[in-house]
Amino acid sequence: MYAFTYETPASVADAVRLAGAGGKPIAGGQSLLPSMRLRLAKPGQVVDLNGIAELAGIRREGNALVIGAMTRHMDVAGSAEVQAAVPALAHLAAHIGDRQVRARGTLGGSVANNDPAACYPSAVLALNATVITDQREIAADGFFVGMYTTALNEGELITAIRFPIPKRAAYLKFKQPASRFSLVGVFVAQTDVGVRVAVTGAASSVFRQQALEAALNKDFSVASAAAVKVDASDLNSDIHASAAYRANLISVQTQRAVAQMLG
């Protein structure tokens, strides 16, 4: 490790001021701290968001759930409100990492980091959520830009995410057993604007699988999903799985998600 200053703001305004001056925000620390230990990240100032009470919590607003950026994975998983409104989201949160990770990791930290194999980005994209920051509101389709890259400006902080409540949804995750990240995760949601299928773990960033969406919007059935040949040309190939294997997993996980949604 190396020298840096450590700030603990008590309000969003103070955190925004520090971040705007070059401070690096830290939420659960599940990504930033390992990066700092490996010297992949070397912030001169760390801005700890954990003392800002207004950034945590879950509330219902009309036909949507608004979840604060500093809400822990374990709190999303255990929330009766989330379990009733979007059980697939509670299920997703309950299967992130291990108990220690779920006790520290946060919704906002995961989404802002946009790890290619993180679970939450698939929920944000499939549920057509809105990322709320200290500056603006960003639609899910315009938020995830690329590997570890989002539409956030320098110093811009996520304060909450608004999830429209779907008609039904399911999340299926094939884990990489050592890290428990998604080798392939598929979130399928039937929303007011149609079926959305978001995939994580298979490419450099979370993405919508449009061929599966088109098929399922015409005929929401397991057979319809099975008939789609998933293109492997832009998918990851590494020591854990080939691109062709990941393409097959996308198909299989989508079929299983549809079957689950159909009961």
From TrEMBL:
Keywords associated with the record: FAD, Flavoprotein, Oxidoreductase
Ranges where the FAD-binding PCMH-type domain occurs: 1-168
EC number: 1.2.7.4
Alphabetized GO MF terms: anaerobic carbon-monoxide dehydrogenase activity; FAD binding
InterPro entries, A to Z: CO_DH_flav_C, CO_DH_flav_C_dom_sf, Diverse_Substr_Oxidored, FAD-bd_PCMH, FAD-bd_PCMH-like_sf, FAD-bd_PCMH_sub1, FAD-bd_PCMH_sub2, Mopterin_DH_FAD-bd
PANTHER family, per database record: XANTHINE DEHYDROGENASE SUBUNIT C-RELATED
Protein name: Carbon-monoxide dehydrogenase medium subunit
Species classification: Bacteria, Pseudomonadati, Pseudomonadota, Betaproteobacteria, Burkholderiales
